[in-house]
Amino acid sequence: MARTIVDEGRYDEAHLKEQTDMPLLVREDTGKFLRASEVPGVNVNADRPDHVFVMADADGGLRAAPGSLGARDGQHDETASIELDFDPQLAVDRTVSTTDGSVAVRSVWNRLREELATYTPEFVNEETGVGRETHQEIAREFAEADRGKIIHGKGVNDWYHNDLGNRAIQLLVTLTGHIGRQGTGLDHYVGQEKIWTYEGWSSLNAPVPSRSVPTTLWTYYHCDVLDNADAETTRRVREAIDEDWMPVYPAEREDGSRPDPRIMFIWRGNYFNQAKGNVAVEEQLWPKLDLVVDVNFRMDSSALYADIVLPSASHYEKHDLSMTDMHSYVHPFTPAVEPLGESKTDWQIFRELAAKIQELARERDDVEPVQDREFDREIDLESIHEDFVRDWESGEEGRLADDREACEYILEHSAETNPPESDEQITFEDTVEQPQRMRAVGDHWTSDLEEGEPYTPWKRYVQEKNPWPTFTGRQQYYVDHDWFLELGEELPTHKEPPTLQDKAEYPLNYNTPHGRWSIHSTWRDSEKMLRLQRGEPVVHLNPDDMEERGIEDGDTVRIYNDLGSVEVQAKRYPSGEPGTARMYFAWERFQFPDRGNFNSLVPLYMKPTQLVQYPEDTGEHLYFRPNYWGPTGVNSDVRVEVERVGGEGE
Amino acid sequence: MSTSDGGETIDIADDVDHQVAMVMDLNKCIGCQTCTIACKTNWTDGGGREYMYWNNVETKPGAGYPRDWEELGGGWDEEGDERTPGDLPAQEDYGAPWDFNHEQIMYEGSDEPLRPMDNAADWSPNWDEDEGAGEYPNSYYFYLPRICNHCTHPSCVEACPRSALYKREEDGIVLVDQDRCRGYRYCVEGCPYKKVYYNAMKKTSEKCIFCYPRIEGEGPDGEVRAPACAEDCPPQLRLVGYLDDEEGPIHKLVNEYEVAVRLHPEYRTEPNVYYIPPFAPPQHAADGETTDEDRIPREYLEELFGPAVNDALETIEREREKVNRGEDSEVMEMLTTTDTSDQYRLEVFDEA
Ligand code: SF4
Ligand code: SF4
After folding, report:
1. How many CB atoms lie within 10 A of CB A79?
2. What are phi and psi of A228, to 5 degrees?
C-alpha cells in the first residue's frame, strides 16, 4: 500500500518535509545519519552538533534539521520547534564534503523509495494472497480520504517481526498525513493499561525510585534460555543486559554474579499459565523459587502452583479507578458487595503484610535498615507499615490505610484530575456521581483536550510543531542504531519469519489469538461459559486439513512440535485458513490432560531489536519503560502437526 | 390494530393496549454471549431451569438451540387460522447443563483435566458456533440472538388447553400463568421458535418474560430498565420499546423504512422481535481480488427472513451511501445512536 501511495504521488509532501525524517541525509558508507558535526559549514547552534541531522534545501545548501535531539533539551522540549524556514528536498542523491572527505549521501526518502520498489503488486499478492488490485484500491481510498485512521489490536505483536509490522502500518498514516488532527492517526489498542493519572499513580506506587523489568526478558533469562538459544540471539541479549539497555533483576552483585530469584509474588496475573515457553517456566524457573505467593480472586493455574494463595476481592468488591487509552475519562469501581469469604482487597492485603513485617521486626528489635543496592534509600522494616500508609507528600500519618483514600491520593496528585493552576479538582465522589473527563492534560499527553471532541494524540507535534520525542525530532522511520543496520532493519521492511520448527515435519501454523469467551484466562474455566462451548479446549481446523489427517469434528487430537504436545478436541472451522491450527488462548493448565498448556508449544523467543536503547549512549528515543518499550513475547511463527488420538494402530 | 398519523397501520393484537418490541441489529453482534449470561444469571440459574436459555445466541447457518429447531414445526398455516402441528424437542437437543469437576481439581488434588461430569458431552446450545457454511476464503456465518418474540398471534397461547399462556393486556408480553399450567407442553410443541421450556422440577412450562419487573421499575432503585439482554449487550445492538410508539425508532425501522424484518415470517405468529439483516464483505476471487458476489447467499437470508429482506438490505445500502456522501440518514442515525433515551423507550405510555 505504501508503494502505491508513493508511486502514484498520493503522499502529503508538505507533511513529509516538515514532520518526518524523509528529507534527512544518510551516509552511504556507514548507513548512519549525516550529522551536522561532520559537515563543516553547516550553521548549527547546538550543544551537541553530533546529534543534529542534516537536510538539503531547495538550492542544494546543507541545513541543520531543526528539533534534532542535539539542539533541544532532552526528549521533550516544548521550547524547540521543527518548523522550517527553508524548503528541504525530499529526493537527494549526491556527495557531501565532510570531515572524513567526500561522502556519498542519500535522503531517507530515496532509501525508502528503493525499499518500497520491492513490493510490486505481484509480490504482495504472492506473499499475502490479497489481490493485486484490491490492495492498491484500499491504498488509494485511504490516501484520498479527507481523514483516515487505522485502528488495530495487539495481534501484530504476536509475531517475531512485530516491530517491523508496526512500523510499516504506521508509515501509511505518515505518508498520507493522516495524523495529528481529529479523526486521524493510528490506534494500537492493547488493553486497559493506560494510566492517564500517571503522576499520582507513581507517587503512590513508588514514592522512592523503584524497579520494573520487562517480563519477557526476565522470564527468558531465569529460564536459562541463554544457555540454549542460537549464538547470535544470545550475544545480543547479553550485550543489551551488559550495556544496561534492559534491566534484569536480581541485580548483578559486585563479584559479577547474579543470584537466582527466590520469591515470587503474582498479583493481577496468571503468570504460570500465560507465560510463553511454559515448559521452561515449569522446569527451569519454578525450581529456583523458594516461595510463590499468589494474590488472586480466582483459583487459576498460578494459584494451583503457588505455595500460598491470598484470596483477593474482585472488581465489584472494592474501590478502584479505571482508565483506558480509548477515552479520556476516569471511572470508579465501587463495591457492589463486600469481599466474599476471607478475601480482602489488594490494597489491604499488601498493607497487612507490611503491618505483620513491621510487627515482627519490632518484636525482634535488632533489624537494621536495609540499604538499597541501587538507589539512595533505606528500607526500614520496623516502620514499613507506617511508611506504607503515610501520605508521602503531606507527611500525614496513616492517611492511606484504605483503598479509597489511595484512589483519592492518585486523583489529588495528578495534573489531569487536580490541575495545578486551578481549584477544579476531581474527587472520588465525583467519579461515583458520573465518570469524569480529565480536567487538564499532563506532560505525557501529546495533545490538548478540547471540549466536546474526543482526544486525538500528536497535535502538539503536527499542529504546534514541537519536536517529536525521537532522536531526530521527527516521525522517524530510519533507525541508524548499529543493530538495526546489521540486521537490515533501518527502514520498515518485509522479512520472512524465523524458522522455529521444520516446515516439513510441522506443516501447520499455530496461532493462539485472544478469544471472546474470556478476558485472557479470567472466566476461561467458567462453568456458565463452558456450557456455551464444548466444555474443554478445542483447536479450530480447516476442513481440508482435517480430512487429510482423518480427523472429524469432535475427535480428540494431539497437537505437537519439538517442544511439547497437548491433547484437545478438534473443531471444524471452515473460516480458518488452510494450514493453520488455531487455539484461542488462555485455557488453564488444569483444562488439559496431564496439565498441558497452549503455551507448551510456544518457545521463549524474543527479538533483539526490541532490547535496544537508542541513541545507544543516552536513550532519549528508545529506552525501557513498561508497556511502552521492551521485548514482546513471540507466540506466533510457531509450527505444529496435528494427529487424531486413538487412530488406527493405536 | 391502530393506525398512525403517517397512514401506516401498526398491527398489534386486538386485546392489548400496547405491544413491547425489540429491534436487533445483526451487524453488530459479536457472539459474546453476554446477553445469554445476563439472562441466565437473572432468571434461569437453577431450580430445573439450568438447561434453558430464554435468550440464546446461535451461529447461522447452523443447527441452533434447540438443535434443528427450525424443523420442528409449530406456528400457523397459510391462512393463519389453523395451527400447524409441532414436535417437542428431544432433551438431548437442548444440550445438558454440564457440571464440572472444579471442586475435585482445586481442593481435592485430582489430576484429572477439568471436564463436564457427563460422559455424553456431545452437544450443547452453541456446539456448532462459528462453523457456518461455505469454503475459505468465502465462508460465512453470523450470530443470531433469540428471545421469545412476544408474538402478536402467538401459537403457544392458542396451543394451551388451559389458557395458562396469555398476552398481558398492558404491553402484550406473553406469560405462562404458573398456577394454571399443568405441564402438558402443548405450548412447547406449538411455538415454532421453541421459546417455551418445560421445567421438569416444577412440572410447568416457563419462558422469557421480557424482564417485566425491570420494565415496571422494580430495579433496586425503583428505576425502569430495559431487559437485561439489551442493557448488558456490549455493542448495544438492541432497541427496546413499543411497536405502537409512533415517535420511537422501532416503529420507524419496522413500519416506515421497513428495514427491520421478522425471523421466519412464514410461521405466521407475527413476532415482535425484528432484525436488521446482516451484511458481509463480498467474496474474494481465487486471485485474491474483491468481487461483487454476495458472501451470504441472498437465498439463505430469504429463507430466514422472508422476501422482505431484499428491500430491507437495499434500503440500508442506500442509507449507508447517503452517510458516505455526507448526507443525513435517519435510518443510520437510529441504528448508531448511543443515546439510551432513544435506544430504550419504555416510559412513553406511562401516565404523567
Ligand atoms: S415466540 Fe413462541 S413462545 Fe414466544 S410468543 Fe411467539 S409463539 Fe409464543
Ligand atoms: S450481548 Fe449483544 S453482541 Fe453479545 S451475543 Fe448478545 S446480542 Fe450479540
Report:
1. 8
2. -120, -15
Q: Which of A485, A463, A464, A466 is nearest to A474 (CA)?
A: A466
Supply the pLDDT for residue A486. 97
Q: What is the pLDDT of residue A633?
A: 85
Alpha carbons A277 and A602: distance in angstroms, whole number:
5
In a 10 Å sphere around its CB, with 0-12 CB exposed, 13-18 middle and 19+ buried, how is residue B325 labelled?
A: exposed
- What are the distances in angstroms from CA B57 to CA A399, A533, A546, B128? 49, 12, 27, 11
| Domains A198-211+249-437 and A508-644 belong to one CATH topology | no
Coil, strand, or helix at residue B274? strand
CB contact under 8 Å between B114 and A591, yes or no, is: yes
Q: Which of A195, A197, A200 is nearest to A409 (CA)?
A: A200
In whole angstroms, how far apart are CA A232 and each of A251, A340, A375, A479, A616?
24, 51, 33, 20, 19
Q: What is the mean pLDDT of residues A16-36?
A: 98
Long-range CB contact pairs, A312-316, < 8 A, 24+: A312/A339, A312/A343, A312/A344, A312/A345, A312/A346, A312/A349, A313/A339, A313/A340, A313/A343, A313/A344, A313/A345, A313/A346
CB atoms within 10 A of CB B303: 14
Nearest neighbour of B288 by CB, restricted to A130, A529, A535: A130
Whole-angstrom distance, CA of residue A346 vs CA of residue A342: 13
Architecture of the domain whose range is A198-211+249-437: 3-Layer(aba) Sandwich (3.40)
Q: Which amino acid is at A16?
A: L
In the 3-class helix/strand/coil scheme, how is A89-105 assigned residue by residue?
Answer: CCCCEEEEEECCEEEEE
CB A33 within 8 A of CB A478: yes
For a mutational test of ligand 1's pocket, the pick from B147, B188, B193, i.e. the residue with the most ligand atoms closer than 8 A to its C-beta, is: B193
CATH tag, B2-343: 3.30.70.20
Confidence of residue A649 (pLDDT cuts 50, 70, 90): very low
Question: Using CA atoms, how far apart are residues B205 and B199, in angstroms rounded to an integer?
Answer: 6
Alpha carbon distance A12, A5 (integer Å): 10
**Domain A508-644 classified CATH 2.40.40.20?**
yes
- Best B114, B129, B142 member to test A by mutation, with max A CBs in 10 Å, is B114
ipTM rounded to 2 decimals: 0.95
Which residue of A516, A528, A591 is in closest CB contact with B40?
A: A528
Q: Are A624 and A630 in contact (CB under 8 A)?
A: yes
pLDDT at A142 over 70: yes
The answer to whether the CB atoms of B289 and A574 lie below 8 A apart is no
* Contact predicate B66/B194, CB 8 Å: yes
Judging by DSSP bridges, how do beta strands A185-188 and A263-267 pair with one another?
unpaired
B287 has pLDDT over 50? yes
DSSP-derived secondary structure for B11-23 = ---TT-S--EEEE
State residue A46's pLDDT score. Answer: 85
Scanning the structure block, which residue is given the C-alpha cell 480509548? A326
Per DSSP, the residues of B124-168 read -TTTTTTT-BS-TTS-B-EEEEE-----SS-HHHHH-TT--EEE-
Please report, for chain B, the start and end positions of each structural domain, with discontinuous segments joined by +.
2-343
Q: What angle do CA A171, A172, A177 make, to 5 degrees?
A: 100
Nearest to A644 by CA among A557, A571, A585, A529: A557
d(CA A246, CA A630): 8
- Domain spans of chain A? 2-188+467-486, 198-211+249-437, 508-644
The whole-angstrom separation of Cα B13 and Cα A94 is: 84
CB neighbours of A108 closer than 8 A, spacing ≥ 6? A20, A21, A22, A23, A24, A26, A477, A478, A491
Residue found under cell 511502552: A628
pLDDT, tens digit, for every residue of B2-11?
444 555 578 9
Q: Classify residue A504 by burial, with Cβ atoms within 10 Å: 0-12, 13-18, 19+.
A: exposed
Tell me which chain A residue has its CA closest to the CA of residue B57: A532
